[in-house]
Q: What sequence folds into this?
């Protein structure tokens, strides 16, 4: 499928892969601000799950202003939080990231 005057899913995922490769070069925590399609695409690339499956499983979970936290440990992907709204997080301190030392990508 290709959106008229847009990119196909394969082109989209290729662009996201290039972005993730750049992020990994820093070897640091990163805060990425993006829309749900990009979150699903990055999850698909990181977990090797088909993009269509990611969209089906997570599309309704990832809302406007929501938070998804993914941790990579020894090349293992840990999906800690997917699509939680800031106001609904019971304890924000469960997100243990030092934001002052992060690289920001918008």
A:
């Amino acid at each position: 499928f290709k959106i008229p005057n847009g990119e196909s899913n394969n082109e989209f995922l290729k662009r996201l892969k290039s972005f993730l490769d750049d992020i990994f070069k820093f070897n640091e925590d990163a805060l990425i601000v993006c829309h749900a399609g990009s979150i699903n695409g990055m999850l698909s690339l990181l977990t090797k799950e088909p993009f269509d499956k990611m969209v089906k499983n997570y599309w309704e979970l990832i809302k406007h202003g929501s938070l998804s936290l993914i941790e990579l440990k020894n090349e293992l992907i840990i999906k800690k939080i997917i699509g939680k709204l800031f106001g609904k997080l019971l304890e924000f301190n469960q997100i243990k990231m030092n934001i002052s030392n992060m690289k920001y990508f918008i």
User: Anything to note?
Assistant: The two ends are 26 Å apart (CA to CA). DSSP finds three helices and four strands in the chain.
